[in-house]
Amino acid sequence: MKALHNPHLPWRAGLGLKPEHYADILSARPDVGFFEVHAENYMGDGGAPHRALAAIAERYPISLHGIGLSIGAARPLDRQHLARLRALIDRYRPHSFSEHLAWSTHDAGFLNDVLPLPYTAETLERVSAHVDEAQQATGCQLLLENPSSYVLFDDSTIDEIDFLDAIAERSGCGLLLDVNNVMVSAVNHGLDPYAYMDRFPVERVGEIHLAGYDETVDGAGERLLIDAHGSKVRDDVFALYRHTIARCGPVATLIEWDNDVPTFPLLLAEARRADSVLATAAGRREPMRRRA
Amino acid sequence: MDIIAIQNAFAAALVDPGQPAPAGITTARGKPDEKRFAVYRNNVAVGLTRALESRFPVTRQLVGADFFAGMARAFIAGHKPASPLIFAYGGDFPDFVAGFAPAAGLPYLADVARLEAAWTHAYHAADAVPLAIATLAGLDGERLAVARLTVHPAAALLRSCFPTGSIWQAHQGDIAGSASFSGGECVLVTRPEFDVRVHVLPPRDAPFAEALFGGLTLGEAAERTAAEPEFDFGAALVGLIGLGAFAGVRMEGG
Amino acid sequence: MNRQTFAFALAGSLATAMATATAAPLPAEKMVGMEKCYGIALKGQNDCAAGAGTTCAGTSTMDYQGNAWKAVPKGTCTTMNVDGHMGMLEPAKG
Lengths: 292, 254, 94
Hints:
The complex is a heterotrimer. Chain A has helices at 22-28, 48-59, 79-92, 121-138, 160-171, 179-188, 193-199, 235-248, 264-281; strands spanning 13-16, 34-38, 62-65, 96-100, 103-106, 109-115, 143-145, 152-153, 174-178, 205-211, 214-217, 223-226, 253-256. By secondary structure, chain A is an alpha/beta fold. Chain A has one domain (13-281): Alpha-Beta Barrel (TIM Barrel). In chain A, the strands form three sheets. Chain A has an eight-stranded parallel β-barrel with strand order 1-2-3-4-7-9-10-13, surrounded by four helices. By secondary structure, chain B is of the alpha+beta class. In chain B, α2 (34-55) packs across α4. Chain B is elongated, with a radius of gyration of 24 Å. Chain C is α+β, with helices and mostly antiparallel strands. Chain C has one helix at residues 3-23; strands spanning 40-42, 80-82, 85-86. Chain C has a two-stranded antiparallel sheet with strand order 2-3. The longest helix of chain C is centred in the N-terminal third of the chain and has 21 residues, at 3-23. Chain C starts with a helix and ends in an 8-residue tail after the last strand. Chains in contact: A-B, A-C, B-C. Chains B and C meet through α2, α3, α4, α6 and α8 of B and α1, β1 and β2 of C. β4 (179-181) of chain B pairs parallel with β2 (80-82) of chain C.
């Protein structure tokens, strides 16, 4: 394997970058650890998005979070999309590059959600190969994110954590630990989120995501959490986050707020909340395990 | 089942609300649950509807939120995004609107949608320095006549039988009371730097602008417009170039 | 008009327009200042221009798929008179 560009995010809270906040950020220069962008939103040819991102990248570390690569798809990765990712990485030199353990591309078109896949020997091989291909094509280590899910597959034979760990072992990728996803999936599938967290291979984690979930019930009237990214981080998720940081030490932590985007000060307050947790754990952690 | 079959079944059920959740999809209870699968179906439907709402806000205001949602759903059923670049989704929505029978009573609706599509396209288009009029100043008449102008990557020209620009403008702030519009308009969308601009061109210059956007030479475009008594070649050219409609000039065949 | 005369007329027309444009009392820094006197500038909301982003967020907002809906004109088309036509929408099925 070629040597990969191994970027580092600071052990601080970061925020998702939204066009409605460009002006706030560029004029006030708030103290934020990093800004994360959804890669696909910067795949236009030019204009205001690139101008703003270039200006912000001069002042803050940037994290690139892909949504559309469809690493979990049965079909081959889209070479054109890989080239677009590579171009963004070359241009903005992000300190982190992540994608989802999910799929979204199909002959039916781009199904714009992060869809679940069964965990089997076959999908393990497929996903590992895709991660490897993505890393080679972008020259960048990839952090693979644990999914939130609403259903299970009869075909699954491998535990989710073992699945993620095996992909990381085979491909040399890191992991992105989404604490909200852990809560959402644990509640939806009747698991203990703390037990999940205590088994998670934290030494592979390069970034953490936090977000707010919504709540509804399924067809049997059981509690069903939706990974909605439209509110403050819920108390139970924040408590799980404290537990996680206490266990693994400080990790760059993103506040994801994508629906009903709030004013910048409210978003900043969420970052401060995470920063305070990170500050208590500062200095207790070795950098993420890496492979050359 | 192999992963190809699983994803084919999943995708087929996802895009067709009439289908049950695919076999093999279960819950921790060990029983399938339609409502859980519907979360994915809903995420896709709502996500794409929001994408259209955000790209076509005036079209939506014109028909109201409920009608727009229905029209969006009808469009989405037959038009999934071709790529993960959701900002580009809905480029063919205006054509769909034009053929959407329930909106036939609003013949101007599709052109308003076309203007909105051009707006977002301009916003994300490649950066290019607009052609400066000084570039043409050095050309003699013969060379000027055979020059062709390269359309700026962000620029779009929309010649409408309806007062599309005025309707659009009336929806950029709070609309108070009723409004009355008439006549066709030729609307030019440009983005000379980073801000998208929308202009209603003088009617006498519309055929000329259209000819230049169609790739005709300056001479051909001027000839085509010669019958228009009010037309002033120099004023029209200086005006269009000043708005940032073009990015370059090329001389071919003499 | 022969070809040469026509070409000459084009160049003359352009020269005149450019002279007028430069002579006009526009602030020098307004390179795109021509728009002040050419076409009607419409004011849009640039900040809302990005369009929809791609996002990995789910939603609990429900799309009531398959429900037939009755389109009563609730949009602004009902308050607009375009070429003598008031807005009319037909019921549609979703």
